[in-house]
Design a protein that fits this description.
This protein has 165 residues and is mainly alpha-helical. It has 7 helices and 4 strands; from the N terminus they run αααββαααββα. The chain has helices spanning 6-20, 27-34, 38-50, 75-82, 109-124, 128-132, 155-164, and strands at residues 54-57, 63-66, 134-138, 141-145. The protein starts with 5 loop residues before the first helix and ends with a helix.
Length: 165
Amino acid sequence: MTLLSRKADYAMLILLHLHQNPEGGCAREIAERFHLSRAFVANILKELSHKGFVKSHRGVKGGYLLRRSLDEINFSELIESLDQPFRLAECNHAIPDDGCELVHQCPMKGPMAVIHDRILKLLSTVTLAEIFQQVSANDGLVTVSLPSPSGMAELEPALAQTILE
């Protein structure tokens, strides 16, 4: 189980590219840079455009530009806009699925809901600007150094502390 789907992961790469290239970019060049399927990149760009993260412009120099500042976009917003909402457990859904027969009597439902809410709150405090803050190109590959205490570098200890509180 992963929290970040392939689509959300690639969307992060696409937004990183657009952040590093303020003049914009097109599906072809982004796909070539990261060695991704051009069709998949084009579909993600289209969805990012519909969700308000990027804007498209037509013409010879057509392509995509960031629509919003990366300081305005938090990590959980991006994930949830592209994928199904994150759920720690089946019962952490507005209308619990009938995948668990114990949903109405489970003693763990409440504690799992608390942990679920804390994880979502933590992810909503991390902006894309923080994640991309120390990204640098190295031999055509992207190396990401996550930010310090206020950002994701402290995600695991912060998450553990949040869960224990």
